[in-house]
């Protein structure tokens, strides 16, 4: 099938983020006094589209659903400003929303109200003739995600799934995926908690499985070969959208024909840079910043051996840990 190179389509969620910074993330039943409320464009799909276009430099489009309400324009404006072409499904439900608490140590807790995101249906998928990479997440209905992945597979389009929020994935979805991106918790849900990260990566029947490991970096199993990417040396202030930035830049790199290790390095660099500023889409760096970070080699190479050991370690059983 003949396609233009470097065309990414993100199909998925778009939310308005209601963000409050606080000394720590509240425990159940706890009330914490925080700072001023910030209302920002977000959503895993929209964040990934912005990252693909802005930080990855790819020609990027997005299929999203919005409510007919006052906050929808904030998402539209942010995506268009980043250079994303929009395919909007207008829903009777309100635009999706996320309630986010960001702690002083840069961790976050997020509750999502899907709203209009639940309106995306299989029939909404646009023409794929100029698309070479489709990016999906799990904040939209699972039957729709499966239908999009199957359609892309049939059209010869690369399918990248960010399996978040965590859930068990059906075989008919896994069989239509080329690249699966997960964090450590999501990997445990999909592959089971037993064994090392390397062993769990190998149990997932997908050609390429990438595990993002936060400040440790990332590791991937691609066609049976292990790839390790040590972390970039940054001082984080807010980890919101770091994983989404990783996914968008990885998709952009693979779409442009970069080899996998190169795309993995750029994705880790972009994700690290995004943690140095607050917000979701507002934190995503531009392509020049990512290229500069990669060129300067800001990775903590001493951590490469530590990362390898971490990924190869078999976690103790509850009994062995004395739990």
Q: What is the CATH architecture term?
A: 3-Layer(aba) Sandwich
Q: If you consult CATH, what is the topology?
A: UDP-N-acetylmuramoyl-L-alanine:D-glutamate ligase
- Name the CATH homologous superfamily: Ribokinase
Order of secondary-structure elements: EEEHEHEEEEHEHEHHEEEHHHH
What is the CA–CA distance across the termini?
55 Å
Q: Strand portion, in percent?
A: 15-25%
CATH class categorisation: Alpha Beta
What overall geometry do the principal axes of the alpha carbons give?
Answer: globular
Q: Please list the strands of the largest sheet in the order they lie side by side.
A: 5-4-1-8-9-10-11-12-13
Given helix and strand content, the structural type is alpha/beta
The number of strands is: 13
Let me know the largest β-sheet. Answer: 9 strands, mixed
Total individual domains? 1
The average pLDDT value, as a whole number, equals 92
Rg, Cα atoms, Å? 19 Å
For this structure, the quaternary state is single chain
Number of helices: 10
Helix content: 25-40%
Low-confidence segments, given as residue ranges, are 318-323
Task: Provide key terms for this protein.
alpha/beta, UDP-N-acetylmuramoyl-L-alanine:D-glutamate ligase, nine-stranded mixed β-sheet, four-stranded mixed β-sheet, about 30% helix
